[in-house]
Design a protein that fits this description.
23% of the residues lie in helices and 22% in strands. The chain is of the alpha/beta class and 192 residues long.
């Protein structure tokens, strides 16, 4: 299937999930993450869940990261430039939803410091679908491909999904950046 077909398929599959299923599967994903060999790293970039899209609930993963005293980085998206600015999550960070229902840090005197891409060691990547080679399908704006292209060569890219991989995604572009892993409630898929 091509990206457009996969977007439609997985949006529909996610809409069928109940709130309880999303919470149970998201907790299982956070627990499965503990088996990955990334915990010696310090800077972890975490996407914040878009509830309306029935994404993996990252609150459980955020609790794991905080419990391990990791530096948690969150993004603010610029839909004009299709770029993300990254900020350190602190106790003082305040959030608001943007026009796309994405929680983002609010700029202001209490805003946490901007984090350069070069400091980020692990990125949790949102996705709709992925394949057995680690290619992913997002929402189609290219935010994460552009962001990951500016990160360190050794940044660890981890997708989070309720579902198992497709065999292959048709129409993968040379600018698409592959995942290193994708974590589901039952499995860690490695693409390294």
């Amino acid at each position: 299937m091509n990206k457009k077909e996969l977007r439609a398929k997985y949006k529909a599959l996610r809409q069928q999930l109940s709130i309880e299923e999303i919470e149970d599967k998201s907790l299982a994903i956070a627990n499965k993450m503990l088996q990955l060999d990334v915990w010696e790293k310090t800077y972890f970039h975490l996407f914040l869940t878009i509830e309306e899209q029935k994404e993996v609930e990252t609150e459980f993963l955020l609790q794991v990261l905080a419990g391990k005293d990791k530096e948690i980085v969150v993004a603010k998206s610029n839909f004009d430039t299709l770029e993300m600015t990254n900020f350190l999550l602190t106790d003082n960070t305040k959030f608001q939803k943007n026009q796309h229902n994405i929680y983002e840090p609010i700029d202001g005197p209490d805003a946490s410091g901007e984090v350069p891409n070069s400091k980020i060691e692990v990125v949790f990547v949102p996705l709709l679908a992925y394949d057995k080679l680690g290619n992913r399908v997002g929402y189609g704006k290219g935010f994460y491909d552009a962001f990951l292209a500016k990160c360190r060569d050794d940044v660890v890219k981890i997708g989070l999904s309720f579902f198992e991989p497709e065999d292959v995604i048709d129409g993968v572009s040379p600018s698409d950046i592959r995942l290193d892993y994708c974590v589901t409630p039952n499995t860690i898929h490695s693409f390294r």
